[in-house]
Amino acid sequence: MTSGIRVAVYGAYGHTGRFVVAELQERGFVPVLSGRDADKLKALAAETGLEARPASVGDPASLDGMSAGTAAVINCAGPFAATAAPLIETALRVGIPYVDVAAEIEAVADTFAQFADRARESDALIVPAMAFFGGLGDLLITTAMGDWTAADEAHIAYGLSSWHPTAGTRAAGAVSRERRDGRGVRYRNGRLEYHQDDLPTLEWPFPAPMGPRAVIGEFTMADVVTVPSHLSIPDVRTYMAADAARDIAAPDTPAPVAADRFGRSGQTFLVDAVVRSGTRERRAVAGGRDIYAVTAPLAVEALDRILTGRTKATGVASAGEIFDAPDFLRALSPHITLEQRP
Ligand SMILES: NC(=O)c1ccc[n+]([C@@H]2O[C@H](COP(=O)([O-])OP(=O)(O)OC[C@H]3O[C@@H](n4cnc5c(N)ncnc54)[C@H](OP(=O)(O)O)[C@@H]3O)[C@@H](O)[C@H]2O)c1
């Protein structure tokens, strides 16, 4: 039973944080609202009737105070280059699991590199990128793999109808671009590599009803860290619908606007995940609405499974490694539709 269990949400008043708070409440958890801005927290506390505990990543004592009496922490405050390490240090110190929604490739890779040993030694659970990018793709690839233990290639094509980014997405993108010094990044031959090549445009055969659509190849997302963290696949590639890539590149694309009673925007997605081994191919496809909103059921389902012992690993682990991937995805219906082929 998870009812009444307190969960700290850092970045609670952000766009994604609010969806996570609502999903936790929906499932009977008691969110403890946290973040660096006391006024924004106070406003959210007044709106929700929940407790607010301001805390700053530069002040470990405040983060310990945020975590006191909670069973876990979900970090929704990005750029994660700034927030992940201090919050993971707190989770390890206090002895609670940590889940974040990072999409930044380098920040997720840093979480594995910096904390894998310590987390394993202390039997802790740290789950980065437990979100639309990084988490869902990993769950789909793991599902598609079925009984395969290795594959030659993994491809994840993101069929987003549009992409109206939040301020947090733009800030995270800016931090990642700066870290890459103008270069692109991709995963080839079993490692991340940086390059100066132009990104190709190609047609991706999305299943009906979307059908074939122009995508940008090597539009690399956090799945290139999460998938190879536990699956033996030397070549992992991600693709983005060309229209959505144009949206996110344009400086004047507006932030998402609520279009239903859950606060979801009108954006829809189809994520087509394919694994290839020799001439054989397996596929898992997910559909749904609003990549920010759907991050909440992904993160909260993860938390629920962690707190009820439905996990397969300890240490720093991605969604596909730590959970029963097909079971996890089926549990997310109706937020996510799942189709497997063959
Ligand atoms: N992997 C995915 O699929 C996925 C999905 C959703 C979101 N995300 C990521 O989650 C992050 C938040 O996105 P969002 O849509 O919620 O954006 P948002 O609405 O702009 O919220 C950003 C949140 O992060 C906080 N924050 C930023 N820098 C901070 C710092 N140094 N210390 C403490 N708090 C800080 C902000 O607090 P202030 O208002 O006080 O600045 C705010 O609460 C982004 O990095 C985004 O890329 C990833």
Provide an overview of this structure.
There is one protein chain. This protein is an alpha/beta fold. The protein has twelve helices and 16 strands. It has two domains: 158 residues, Rossmann fold; 167 residues, Dihydrodipicolinate Reductase, domain 2, CATH 3.30.360. 37% of the residues lie in helices and 25% in strands. Helix 5 links the parallel strand 5 and strand 6. The longest helix is centred in the N-terminal third of the chain and has 17 residues. The relative contact order is 0.16. The mean pLDDT is 97. NADP nicotinamide-adenine-dinucleotide phosphate binds next to helix 1, helix 4, helix 6 and helix 7.
Compact description:
The protein has helices spanning 15-26, 38-48, 60-67, 80-94, 105-121, 132-145, 167-180, 223-226, 242-249, 295-307, 319-322, 325-331; strands at residues 6-10, 30-35, 52-54, 72-75, 98-100, 125-127, 153-160, 184-188, 191-195, 201-205, 212-216, 235-241, 268-277, 280-289, 315-316, 336-341. The protein is built from twelve helices and 16 strands.
What is the alpha-carbon Rg in Å? Answer: 19 Å
Helix/strand-derived class?
alpha/beta
The CATH architecture assignment of the largest domain turns out to be 2-Layer Sandwich
Order of helices and strands: EHEHEHEHEHEHEHEEEEHEHEEHEHHE
Span of the ends, CA to CA: 36 Å
Q: What is the number of beta strands?
A: 16
Total helix count? 12
Please summarize the sheet with the most strands: 7 strands, parallel
What's the CATH first level of the largest domain? Alpha Beta
- What percent of residues are in strands? 25-35%
Which regions contain 5 or more consecutive residues with pLDDT less than 50? none
